[in-house]
Amino acid sequence: MELAAIQDALQAEGLDGWLFYDHHRRDPLAYSILGLPETLSASRRWYYFIPSKGEPRGMVHRIESRHLDVLPGDKLPYSGWAEQRELLPKLLDGAAKVAMQHSPLCDIPYVAMVDAGTVDLIRSFGVDVQSSANLVQLFHARLTEAQYQSHIACGKLMDHLRAEAFQRISDCLKSGESLTEWAVAEFIREGFARYGLVTDHGPIVAVNAHASDPHYEPTAESSSPIRPGDLVLIDMWAKSQEQGAIFYDITWVGYCGQQIPEKIQEVFEVVRTARDKGFSFVKQGIAAGEALMGYQVDDVVRGSIRDAGYSDYFVHRTGHSIGTSVHGTGANMDNLETHDTRGIQDYSCFSVEPGVYLPDFGIRLEFDVFVRNGAAEVTGEVQHQILQLGV
To answer: Among 71, 17, 95, 88, which residue's Cα sits nearest to residue 49?
Structure first.
């Protein structure tokens, strides 16, 4: 736990403290930020309050009285609900404004970990509960130099595997060997194992209209063949196995044939232009020392697609935070699904992945951006043209 840095951040935000709370491990952010053991099992409610100044303090149930022993400060014991409500104001010790893992109107669901009833309980003591979203960014979503290096190393393996997967498709088209979306997905999963990479699900291998479903995944029972004249989209994400490793997440597209249809080429160029405008906006803004917010990046990318006449077919945010989970807890590039006003932090990672999804086919192009030492970089290979497969 970075106590001094947390207290500095609380003072900068004009907050009296940060109140952590959990029951049955509903808030993984609390465990990570406080440095609590992964094996800790909380069957009763616990609270831990970090004031903007002074010593932190906690509150634990008597049958789990040792649960917060690894953290500094006194721990108030309680048993019954009435005693809990009597002690909570003492825990807060006159604080008027505190942060919790709460998001007004659930604008940022990634930090909305505390139930509404507990927020009501704290507010019943006359305490103003604010969102901890900015604090979570600072103390959970910012990455280390070692994590940056893990992301870069993973990216090199992933880019090689992505090229292998498209080459596999191309070779089968040339030889006439039958191949399905599912078979390519299995090929990629085997590659993850071969390169020592892990993931939670996926990858997406989608042909034609399946590529119009942003979260389509083939199954062994339901999978389309890949044939000449097909558009193929591959979205793949994974990380290395070491503790604290960071995901790498990319999407590329290919066409099975020599002559790419005009409409597919047109949509590809629309998506590529929007992607590149989004990254240029970030790169220039970070280099200039500007305080960029997630929604602003989405506005740039979405505006480019709107100007091309395809706004109705761009149905998701521009990008998401990336961390030890493929969807991290930092700022998302989003002014559609949420209005993300969080600033893009140094040592943060996120995707830029616009897409246009027409009834017959969809195109999404995704790369990862790392902001580091006042500069923004794309962390892997970049697709500039549609891959031509089987030619």
So the answer is: 17
Judged by DSSP in three states, 78 sits in: strand
Q: Give tens-digit pLDDT for 53-76.
A: 999 999 999 999 999 999 999 999
| Whole-Å CA distances, 231 to 186, 201, 236, 388 | 19, 23, 17, 10
State the architecture of 142-389 in CATH terms.
Alpha-Beta Complex (3.90)
Q: Which of 258, 260, 252 is nearest to 174 (CA)?
A: 258
Q: Tell me which amino acid residue 129 is.
A: V
Tell me what pLDDT residue 142 has: 87
Q: What is the CATH number of domain 3-140?
A: 3.40.350.10
Q: Rounded CA gap, 128 and 119, in Å?
A: 9
CATH 3.40.350.10 domain position(s) in the chain: 3-140
pTM over 0.85: yes
Q: What is the pLDDT of residues 211-227, one digit of tens each?
A: 999 989 999 888 999 99
